[in-house]
Amino acid sequence: QSALTQPPSASGSPGQSVTISCTGTSSDVGGYNYVSWYQQHPGKAPKLMIYEVTKRPSGVPDRFSGSKSGNTASLTVSGLQAEDEADYYCSSYAGSNVIFGAGTKLTVL
Amino acid sequence: QVQLVESGGGVVQPGGSLRLSCAASGFIFSNYGIHWVRQAPGKGLEWVAAIWYDGSNKYYADSVRGRFTISRDNSKTTLYLQMNSLRVEDTAVYYCARDRGSYGQDIDSWGQGTLVTVSS
To answer: What residues in chain B have their Cβ under 8 A from chain A's Cβ atoms?
Structure first.
């Protein structure tokens, strides 16, 4: 049950786009379309931003998008805004459990 | 709207026990799988356990299997986590989280968490 691999940090200026990767294996990310992305601000509970690889819950801006290729999923944030600065975690179903990535701290410069 | 309220956290000595509860409202509790996820101070999210909508199947992380037990009472719309043989490394905020479906595959809603501190 190893954690999914995410870069520890990412950054971009307001208005720019940034992409965060999430690499697993064929037993998790590559094997199922149950990949989700969560945003977490300091001291707060995580918030679902993307589910089933590409789907956005109602209320999540369309600046957030998801994709997957093979064993790697990605979250892209377009038109960066100051409030996007947060930790982002990916997760994947893995057959009988859920695995999270170690998290990426997104900084808006 | 979906509401999940955890309780039962606190300070416990290594080797001790604690039972967490999660009161759910705003949705048909008996239709959904539910998870426990924890976050150690300054660390990332770690999935702990999940239970099917009807309680018939339960799954655990290797780090807690044999020590923790997840259960639910659909008549009380409440989820539980019985934690035994606690270790210092179990110190974390414990979140109750709803699955998007019935079978513990995908989390869509989170509670605010309850802090468990294991220390002598």
So the answer is: 35, 37, 44-47, 50, 59-62, 95, 100, 104-113
